Amino acid sequence: MAARTAFFAAAASIAVFGALFLTLRPDADALARILVDQCGIRSARGAVSEPCLKVDQDQGYAVLRDRKGSHHYLLLPTLSISGVEDASLLEPTTPNYFWWAWQNRHHVSAQEPNLSDADISLAVNSRYGRSQNHLHIHIACISPDVRATLDRLEFNSHRWQRISDGLLPHDYWIWKTDPREFREKGPFQILADEFPVDAEAMGRFGIAVAKARDGDFLLLATRVSLIDLNLASAGELQDQDCRSGQSEAGSPG
Quick one: pLDDT at residue 5? Predict the structure, then answer.
């Protein structure tokens, strides 16, 4: 009885929180307007201005500098794609936005000479854990605590492994994949095929990507949980100021 009461109390809490978040969150169309105004995706000239850094019309994405965090960038589709729940992400003709986000990791690593690929991460938040209604992949450093946890654990390829017990901020399922699968299939399709979930359920997941010790990729998926008050914001695994890189590259001796 107590467990049931606790469950409904948690459900009520997250429902109230979610409603407040949706009501009070920042302008949910701000990124979509930046694509038009600063990235010039509808302009014949294609001129870009801050915070837009790059537009690749051939591959269908833009890269922005995020105002939150000194080492934080976003990759956005130039097409209108709402988020992880958008069914078009599972269509074979849709670009692999995670792959292109990884190809743009240099925006972060160029700022700190000591950073390696192991220090970089990608993240997309769930439908309920984001502030914008245009898909955006966060490119930033991985949290040092998360990096240390991943380095301590062993992962088998092509098999979901659940990480709980407080080792990460929330429960995560981790899928180890090789660079070819990451490039050709991509995290959205892997989650849909291997978890498996349909397009509607995809909206309840946040996804992060980090490097494995052996050079493969780790996909980290977390799901909205009423009991754990988890809105599946995979960006919680990132350090958007890259403090670890700054400390390593800091004052001499």
Answer: 47
The SS3 call for residue 173 is strand
- How would you classify the pairing of strands 52-56 and 73-77? unpaired
**Beta-strand runs (E) in 28-187:** 52-56, 61-65, 73-77, 120-124, 137-142, 161-163, 172-177
The share of the chain scoring above pLDDT 90, in percent, equals: 73
Tokens standing for residue 34: 């930046």
Report the b/e string of 176-189 with b at 16+ CB within 10 A: bbeeebbeebbbbb
For residues 147, 73, 77 and 230, what is the CA-based torsion angle, rounded to 10 degrees? 50
The H-assigned helical ranges of 64-169 are 97-103, 106-109, 144-152
Sign of CA dihedral 173, 137, 66, 142: positive
Token output for 118: 């192991």
Preceding peptide of 196 cis, ω within 30°: yes
Tens of pLDDT, residue by residue over 47-104, are 788 999 999 999 999 999 998 888 999 999 999 999 999 999 999 999 999 999 999 9
CA 135 to chain centre: 10
Q: Which of 13-17, 42-46, 212-216 has the lowest mean pLDDT?
A: 13-17
DSSP 3-state of 102: helix
C-alpha distances out from residue 191 to 58, 129, 158, 196, 223, Å: 26, 18, 11, 6, 11
